[in-house]
Amino acid sequence: MSYDFDLFVIGAGSGGVRAARFAAGYGAKVAVAESRYLGGTCVNVGCVPKKLLVYGAHFADDFEQAESFGWTAGKANFDWAYLIANKNREIARLNGIYRKLLINSGVTLLEGHARLADAHHVDINGQRFSAERILLATGGWPQIPDIPGREYAITSNEAFFLEQLPKRILVVGGGYIAVEFAGIFNGLGAETRLLYRGDLFLRGFDQSVRTHLAEELTKRGLRLAFNTDLVQIDKQADGSLLATLNDGRQLATDCVFCATGRRPMLDNLGLENTSVELNEAGYIAVNEHFETDEPSVLALGDVIGGVQLTPVATAEGMAVARRLFQPEHYRPVDYRHIPTAVFSQPNIGTVGLTEQQAIEQGHQVVVFESRFRPMKLTLTESSEQTLMKLVVDADSDRVLGCHMVGPDAGDIIQGLAIALKAGATKRLFDDTIGVHPTSAEEFVTLRTAVVRR
């Protein structure tokens, strides 16, 4: 049978674009459909604009610390609208780059909402196209809890387009998005509270990292409340909001920001016209080759509910393109030792097993840990400390996990991820000469194991 396209991709985010570009490069006839913005969540309402806002929030520290290095400057003033306008210009530039990447790769770009008509047909903008294979890469979407007054809350989608910086903001959630945005708003001068229903935020991260970051955020004036949840939001006559908590307290605020989870974006996708099934968590169920229960339909990225990180989606896109159109170069995605950064203030960088995971997996664990004041801060009044931690298997001497809280943690962890993937031992770390004077050298000078009592 002849088809209009060899591969029809629904969703022009990181994973979909990577799969489409490389499939086209391998000689396939490819189309991509996108109903919102090119580049997906990461480029438009995720990691890229968020990192720009994180940079902006850091300048308050820089201005204050500059005095200790002999600089005298006038009073600093912050303009939220100016930052957002500059951010918007940069995102528009990136949208254009994604458009050129697709078109220059020979991909047919269709802008509109695509819907599955059946296992081999897609409807978009009043037209129907046939495809030998269809790839679903529609990503995720933030959720707001189903509570009274939920319509007054915002999510990360809206936060990037606020017309003005709230004077008071309540951030609800305990994942990395909540922690990052709480740091952004706090750093830019808003009175910020972070509520989380659990005992401590960042579940799944190393316990030392979690407790250390909580201490550092508290030093910065961020008000943390754990074992606390939001149950209702009421709008006041003056336009402010009144948040009611599960313990009966009420907090007046100007903005409620919910970072309370994301769902797969399946709205009006037409899955009912195919044999595609969802798993128990509501994500599209796939096998190790990203194939659904419908043989011609594949899915990847956030919509399948795996490791929801941009580089993971791009790796999955590459794997799909290679397996389908250049199988001799196919390599399955390796989900081990995926490095992760949280752009909190200070940053988190982590790769490999946490101490608890290593113990649960049966390793005899030796832990090396260091807390110190970064050299940059020694002339200042800041009491911020950096944390570095290695989790080592006592029998093989292999380093199982590296964890850091401190400036540039993500950049430092990237190199260590290669070492862990290569199977580096603690002795190799010890035998490596450090770059002096840097914070990174601490990872190769950790000599004394932590004694757990």
Structure commentary:
By secondary structure, this protein is an alpha/beta fold. It folds into 3 domains: 5-141 and 263-329, FAD/NAD(P)-binding domain, CATH 3.50.50; 150-260, FAD/NAD(P)-binding domain (3-Layer(bba) Sandwich); 340-444, FAD/NAD-linked reductase, C-terminal dimerisation domain (Enolase-like, domain 1, 2-Layer Sandwich), CATH 3.30.390. Helices cover 29% and strands 24% of the residues. The protein has helices at residues 14-25, 40-45, 47-66, 80-104, 156-159, 176-187, 207-219, 310-325, 355-360, 409-421, 426-431; strands at 5-10, 30-34, 108-111, 114-118, 121-124, 127-136, 140-142, 168-172, 191-196, 223-226, 230-235, 241-245, 250-253, 255-258, 262-264, 297-299, 340-342, 348-352, 365-372, 386-393, 399-405. Strands 1, 2, 3, 4, 5, 6 and 16 form a 7-stranded mixed beta sheet that branches. A 5-stranded antiparallel beta sheet has the order 17-18-21-20-19, sandwiched between helices. Helix 1 runs parallel beside helix 8 (310-325) and helix 3 packs across helix 4 (80-104). The longest helix is centred in the first third of the chain and has 25 residues, at 80-104. The model has no long low-confidence stretch (mean pLDDT 96).
Largest sheet: 7 strands, mixed
Q: What is the name of the CATH superfamily of the largest domain?
A: FAD/NAD(P)-binding domain
Q: Give the distance, in angstroms, between the N- and C-terminal Cα atoms.
A: 69 Å
Mean pLDDT: 96
| SS strand fraction | 15-25%
CATH architecture of the largest domain: 3-Layer(bba) Sandwich
